[in-house]
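Researcher: I'm preparing a figure for a lab meeting and need a structural model of a single chain. I don't have an experimental structure, so a prediction will have to do for now. The sequence is pasted below. Please return the structure as tokens so I can convert it later.
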Amino acid sequence: MTLRTLLATPEWAAVRVLAGDPDRPLRTVRATLDLGQVPVADELVVLAGPVSPADWRIDALLRRSADAGGTGLLLPAVEPLTGTRLLADRLGIPLLVSETDPLELLVSARLHLVAPDLDRAQLVLATHRALDDRPHSPDQAVAVLRELLRAPVALLDNQGQPFAGELAEAGLVRAEEPVPQRIDLDDGVLLAHPALHPRPGLWVATALKGIAAARADVVPPALAVAASAVQRWLLANRLELERDARSRTALLTDLLRLDAEPGADLRRRIADAGWRLGGWHIGIRVGASSTVDTVARTHEVVRALGAEDTVIAEHGEGWTGWLTLDQEPTAARVRKLAARLRAAHKALGRTLVTHMGVGRPYPRAEGLATTIAEATDAARLAATRPEAGHFLHVDQLGMAQLLLEWTRTDTFEPAARALVAPLQPAPGDLVRTLAAYLDAESSLAETAAVLGVHRNTVAARIARVEQLLGVDLTRRDERLALHLACRTVTMGD
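Model: Understood. Here is the structure written out token by token.
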């Protein structure tokens, strides 16, 4: 053991190093009332009685300790003279001072010398007691561990960013490696333990600096205990989230199927969920990739939309919701709300790739399904429109909305597929090329940029399309028919 290791223990945390280097070996600790004491090698001398800061015998004791290869000198609640501190620095002998009872420090030091693993055992036991079997939120777990370690602690996500707590060195954790990590710092050490193993998920991390770095071998088991507590909370929280999500989805489904006034049971469930059926509703649809965990990411969507008058529920590959207003909104109010939702969608895009559609305002429960259907159609179109920021409000669609409804009929899609069927077996992905060409208003250069090919390649493919389909793409009617057909086939696929 070294003196630094002893100073890092909780019992010695209040001891101050006034001079000297604490990285000295420590083999014994002796309490004395005699300033004429003769120290031995690797011994820390603890003065147990009062002493005057100007007593010349302190300097003499420091010299004898240095000559004998001693570890240092602890003074009880006294600030020695500057000359004494300079002498300790010159001799390289640590000079310590503490307000704590010297005999308590003596007992603690001897216990740690006899049982070097005592600090580790006490820390693990204290962590277990503080983080018992009850679920503790990440913030609670971080706060408990921070108090026990007397060092900054944070829970990091799979990008190495703080999920709870604060840690300046968080970016140094290698988040892609789900194993305990130890990273040396200029003035200490950074320790991290995965909360989910073997899949990368969250890390419990702490930075031990200065004297605290001496506990680098002591702290990891406590981090493992805290990581287990976080994992228990994650599992319990996930079950609760999934239960709530199923309840919201089922309630939304019942509402959308409603073709009459809701019954008493449905009204009770709506009231329990805090949803409003009265007033005017504006539908919202947020679509996402099928790979997105909608249950886990719901809080991000709710936080982005961030309004008390907004309802959001997990629904299919994304989220469905609505805004509720007390009175019929004016056109200016609708535009303002749409702008707010566009800004919310843009903010959400920093962490999640989505497309959003917004419906028009409709009153009461019977209008809810209508505005949500409009929002869903708008979101479907928004998914194919990067130029609009993947956001569309139904009021922006006009005839496009009517055409979209038409292309969703049972008769149009088979006809559309039959129309472009000759292009399917041909090489060169002709359907996609034709769709991009028509979207680009017959511009070869823009189509080539979208597809990432040469414009001559696009020209050859378009000529092949005209040949296979027997059409003339300079004719507006044929272009319109093929444009709708391509859009229907690609959206259906």
